[in-house]
Amino acid sequence: MPISIVNNTDRVSFQGKLYEGTRDSAGLVAGFRWVGNASAVKFGLQQEEVEAKESYSGNRLVDSVLVKPGQATLSFEFSWLTKGNVEMGLNSSQVSNAGTSVTAETQGTVAVGDYIFSKHGNITSLVITDSAGSPATLTLNTHYTLEDAAYGRIKIVSLGSFTQPFKLAYTYAQEILFPFYVNNGLERYFRFEGLNTAVSPNKKLAYEFYRCKPKAISEFNLIDEEFNKFPIEARVLADPTRAADANFLQFGRYIPLE
Questions:
Q1: 141-197: per-residue pLDDT in tens?
Q2: pLDDT digits (tens, 9 = 90+) for 69-121
Q3: pLDDT confidence of 131, banded at 50, 70, 90?
Q4: Cα dihedral angle (150, 153, 155, 159), rounded to 10 degrees?
Q5: Which has the closest alpha carbon to 152: 170, 176, 129?
Q6: What pLDDT is attached to residue 4?
Q7: How far apart are CA 133 and CA 67, in angstroms?
Q8: Under a CB-based contact definition with an 8 Å cutoff, are residues 229 and 76 in contact?
């Protein structure tokens, strides 16, 4: 059916889904993924103006304005800790390690009552030795306790006459890790598919932002009394791959579909 927003008096209240995909230098995305429930999605357009004032009337009136090229920002909050969201929020890439054995994992100097943690989690077959010429072995529940094998948390309860530092040997299960700042934030393409729920039937619409540079999560609450939300801010950059296409131009576009 024909689409027109001329003299449209609809009120607006949007809901919808936000998709993102990592883009290459040609502006192409291998595939998009849904970021999951997003409690807020916002964008802003800004233009910088340079004023010129006349100097002949005595009133210093503004008689000209130079408008510089615009810039745009996109921000949103997601509430699902998916692999893609964690990678985007931490500027990370998932590391997956198959389970294997570790020997001679050296610890710092410890005192009775201190905790030490294995480098890996979900450990089994733990053996702790000291650093003597002929290494002596610590006894479980006499010199140390394994408080939580999943965390790899070990408590020292007696130092005996052992020579520090202590060394851990164990086997750990398959693990996944997300190191911070593995990359400096990959450029991404965002697409919002929404509904105007203020009208009945709801009307479909879309927004696209072709080239975005998200910042890492500015705040990640590790203790909460409510459901956690993870805010992301991104600069929308000019996309030189679309400069000659009047259907896209270089920053983004609004697409009313009904």
A1: 999 999 999 999 999 999 999 999 999 999 999 999 999 999 887 899 999 999 999
A2: 778 999 999 999 999 999 999 999 999 999 999 999 999 999 999 999 999 99
A3: very high
A4: 110
A5: 170
A6: 62
A7: 76
A8: no
The H or E element that residue 189 is part of is: strand 188-196
24-39: buried (b, 16+ CB within 10 Å) or exposed (e) per residue? eeeeeeeeeeebeebe
In one letter, which amino acid is 93?
S
Encoding tokens for residue 184? 């400096």
Three-class DSSP labels, 199-226: CCCCEEEEEEEEEEEECCCCCCCCCCCC
User: In this structure, which amino acid lies at residue 58?
Assistant: G
- Domains of the chain, start order: 14-50+64-94+180-256 (2.30.110), 98-176 (no CATH)
pTM listed for this prediction: 0.84
